[in-house]
Amino acid sequence: MKSSIATLISDFGLSDAYVAEMKAAILRHAPGVRLIDITHDISAQDVMAASIALQRALAAFGPGTLHLAVVDPGVGTRRKVLAVKINRQVVICPDNGLITWAWRLFPHAKAFELTWRPGQFSNTFHGRDIMAPVVGMLAAGRPLNPLISRQIEPVHLDISPAGPSAKFGQIVHIDHFGNAMTNLPATHFAGKIRTIRLRGKSIGIHKTYSDVKTGTALALFGSSGFLEIAVRDASAAKRFSLGIGGRVLVAKMARKSAT
Amino acid sequence: MKSSIATLISDFGLSDAYVAEMKAAILRHAPGVRLIDITHDISAQDVMAASIALQRALAAFGPGTLHLAVVDPGVGTRRKVLAVKINRQVVICPDNGLITWAWRLFPHAKAFELTWRPGQFSNTFHGRDIMAPVVGMLAAGRPLNPLISRQIEPVHLDISPAGPSAKFGQIVHIDHFGNAMTNLPATHFAGKIRTIRLRGKSIGIHKTYSDVKTGTALALFGSSGFLEIAVRDASAAKRFSLGIGGRVLVAKMARKSAT
Amino acid sequence: MKSSIATLISDFGLSDAYVAEMKAAILRHAPGVRLIDITHDISAQDVMAASIALQRALAAFGPGTLHLAVVDPGVGTRRKVLAVKINRQVVICPDNGLITWAWRLFPHAKAFELTWRPGQFSNTFHGRDIMAPVVGMLAAGRPLNPLISRQIEPVHLDISPAGPSAKFGQIVHIDHFGNAMTNLPATHFAGKIRTIRLRGKSIGIHKTYSDVKTGTALALFGSSGFLEIAVRDASAAKRFSLGIGGRVLVAKMARKSAT
Question: Exposed end of chain A (fewer CB within 10 Å): N or C?
Fold first, then answer.
C-alpha cells in the first residue's frame, strides 16, 4: 500500500534543522508523499503530551496515513522502536509509552518491534536515521513485514480514560489557549451531572464557550470528545494554576470533598 | 474551478494538533491541494492581527487561491460564517471583522453567508468541522453556490487606511522584528513630507534601513505599502513602547502638537 | 534541471505573513515544487545561526535541491546576492557570510553574483522580491546562467572547523535542547582523547546520552558530526551558561590551563 500522507510529531522545536532532516530522510524514499506537521513544540521529552497529539492525529487522518512520532529521551539505550498498526494507520515511534493514549482509545491495535536498521546510524538521532527512512519506505509502498520482527506489548504510560464509575478524572493535556483536557469521556456523564469540582470550586458543564460570560469558568466537551475545563476568553490553566495530573471531581459524587 | 492552493491562518499556535486537524479535514475532500501556512501565531482571539495577515496573503497569492482564516472567539454563538470573493480569491472565515483589512484594500469584494453544515459538528471547533471541509470542497472543484445563502455586509473592525487628508495615522500591526506598520498608505505622502512624529519625536522617512545608522529610528514604506516605523537592527516597538492603535502624526501638519 | 524541492531558512519568525509571501513568490514560477521549511526561528539577524542551519540542510537533502536562506540585515545596501553551487545543490542567499559554514565543509563550491532583478522591487524585502522568484525560476527549470554575472569570492564569517592540531574548539551553535555544538570535528579526536575541558571542568566523551546518569554532563559526537556538549535530560547551555564562541579545551593538551 502506497501512502500519500505522513505526519510528524516531535519535541525538536522549530529553531534547528532537525525536523527538516527527518523530512529529507522520508522524501529520499518517497518523493511524492505529503508531509503534515502535527506539532514539534512538545516540551522536551514530554512523552505524554506527544501521546495525546498522536491520538488526535490518528483520529483526524484517514486509513493508510503514516505517523512518525519522535520524543525519544531513551535514544541510544536498548529501548525498542515500534511499528504500530492502529485505526487503519501506521505509527513509527520509540517504545517509551508514546503510543499509550492512542492505544487506549482505538481497539484492535497491534504493535511490532521495528528491527530494520540502516548500515550506519548516529547514536543520538534515530528519528532521522532509523524511523524516518522506515516511514519513507512504507510511504513508497514497501511492505512492513521485512522491517519488523515479532508482535510485542508496548510500554505504557500510567494514563487511561476514566472508567464509567470513576469519581475523579485527571488533567491529561493543557492546550495553547490554557484549556485543560481531562480523561473524562463524554459518555461518563449521565444527564444529571451538570457540574464538576476543581480545586474546591463548582464549575458548570456547558455546550460552548459563549454559554457563559467572558471571564467565567466552564466545563464542556471539547473537540477531543473529553471533558475540558475552560475560561471564556481566558486561560483556565492560569486562572486555576492547572497542571498535568490535576484532579477533577465528578460532582454527583462530591458533596463533601473537593480537590 | 479546482484550486491548487489553500492557505491557513489561525490563533491555534503550533503546540497542539488543531492546525493539523483542519488540514486533515481539507485533504479529505481535496487530497491534491497544496497547503500553505500563513501564520498560526496570531495572539489568542486577536481578530485584527489576523485581518492584516489575511490581507497580505490575498496580496501575495494568485487568482483562485483559497484562504481559511480562523480566529473565532464567537464559535458556538450566532456569529455567521463567511465566504468572501475578493481579489479573485475566496476567503472562508468567521464573520467577526476578520475580513476587514482586506475588504478595505481590495475593491469589488462580495461576502456571502456560508450556510453549509455537516451532519454533525462540535460546538467549539468550527474551523475544523465547518470551515475546513468547505475549503476542501471548493479546492476539489465543487461550486460555492450550494454552500451559501444570500450576499451580506460583513461585520467590520474599526480600522481603515488613513484618508488623504488625515493628520494622524495609527499603528495597525507590529511584526516579529518590532517594526510598526501604520495605516498610512504611501500615496498619503506628498514629496514634501519627509518626517513623521511619534511620541513627540521627529522621525525621518527613508528608503531602507541602511539609510540610517544602527540604532537609529526611521520611517519607511515597507513591503506592505504602508508607512512603517523601524529602528535599524533593533525593535522600534521596544524602543518606543509601541502598541496597536498608537498614533503617528503626519509631520507637515504637526508644528505644535505631538502624540 | 527542474528541481522538486526548495527549502527555506529565515529569521522572519512565524507570526507574520513574510514566509508565506516568499513561498507565494516561488510558487508563482514553480507551482509544483515542494517547499520544506528548515527554520524561520533564527534570531533576528543571526547570520551565523543561519549558516549552521543551511549547512545541515545541504547535508540532508539530495542533488538538485534549492535552498533559499534569508537573514539579511544589509537589505537595501550594496551587499550582493549570491547563487552558490555547492554539494550538487544551489543556494540563493545574501552575500553576508551566510554561506560560510557550508563553504567550509563542502569542497568544490562556486559562488556567483546574482544580478537578476525584477522590474520593481521593495527596498526592504529582497527575500520575497528578488531571491524567491529566482528560486522559483530555477525550480521551474530555467537555467541559472542568465541570472548571474561573474564568479566571486563570497563574504565569510570568522568561523571554521578546528584544524587537526587545535588545542581549543569553540561553540558554534546551541540547539533547542540546550546542546552546544562545537567546531571540533570527530576526526580531531585520537583514540586517546577521552575528555574535554569546559569552564574548568573535565567532561567525558561518550557515545550517547544514556551512557551517563540523568543530570550528568557529557560530550559526544552528535548528529552533526561535530563534538557536542550535553547534559543528559537537561540543558547544557543553561547548566554551564554557554554561549556562541565559548571555548572548549581539548583535554590532552590541557594539563594546566582551562577556560
Answer: N
